[in-house]
Amino acid sequence: MLAPVNRSRPTSVRVASLRPADSPRLDGVSMEHVHSLAEADVALPPIVVHRPSMRVVDGMHRVCAARLRGQRTISVEFVDGSEETAFVLAVQANVTHGLPLPIRDRKIAARRIVVSHPQWSDRAIAERAGLSADTVASVRAEVAGQLPPLTARIGRDGRVRPVNIAEGRRRAYEMIRHRRDASLREIAAASGISVGTARDVRSRFLRGVDPVPVRVARSPLAAADPSTVLSGLMNDPALRYSETGRALLRRLGQVMVRQEDIVPLAREVPPHCVTNLVRLARGYAQVWLELATRLEADLSARGERGRATVAAPRLHGPAITRSAGPRSDAVGPPGSPGRARTSGR
Prior knowledge:
Blueprint: E1 11-14, H1 31-39, E2 47-50, E3 55-58, H2 60-69, E4 73-79, H3 83-96, H4 103-116, H5 122-129, H6 133-142, E5 152-154, E6 160-162, H7 165-178, H8 184-191, H9 195-207, H10 214-217, H11 226-234, H12 237-240, H13 243-254, H14 259-266, H15 271-302
Parallel strand pairs: 2-4
Antiparallel strand pairs: 1-4, 2-3, 5-6
């Protein structure tokens, strides 16, 4: 598990010295819940406060109830650490007890945690935000432009694992090949994989098979040269001979940008335009990343990958009979206006 946040022993603190919570609750304090706590004839549990800022982490409803009761002091457990860590603790506390935290609030909180703790795995964040790992993965895709590039993440068990498991397996395979006497723990630590995965890689090495199982190799699809991929799509009959396919190819041709073409131009823009250009680039990147994530999810749901050459799935449309004459429905190369004109008419 990730290291827990230590709490101090309960101590009495003046209510007036406390700052409002940095709460994941978008609607704030529920006065109905406050009144129900204030009227309860029982001692309420200690609240949790971030010592450096004196900000309430967990228990804002109890603080308001104490004020209604006319209390000047309240029982507090202090926690240290950064304000980002305190927010994570606040989310976790609101998910696990007290007034239920709405799903909308959980998703927004997860977005903030992904940005502040990008090194945490989707499952680690999901556990704290009370969401599924798939939901956190979608949130991560939405804010991908705000995140640093990472090759590994920290799981719920506190272990560091590569973002691309296939790469970790291949590193382990190479280590086993050069160091036959290395222990499984050494292999796992050096490759960023679990001991169990290292054991499986060693077994595959001894059997002489690929270290990466098919199910692992399938995701994520590796990036490729856009010009090469687009050229393959342009020549695919399944796209060329359907209205939807041709519309897709025309749109892809319009947005095709080569780095060697755009970078020299972008560097010549006036300084006051750079910020907006950066925002535009990140915006486009986010759109494409979300598209890739959704398409990969569709592939996984169908249990198929398509061709290794990144061929597109056949689009539904009316069958087209090809005659011996010239074609009138072909699409030109990227940047062309659309269909090629038919000659000989």
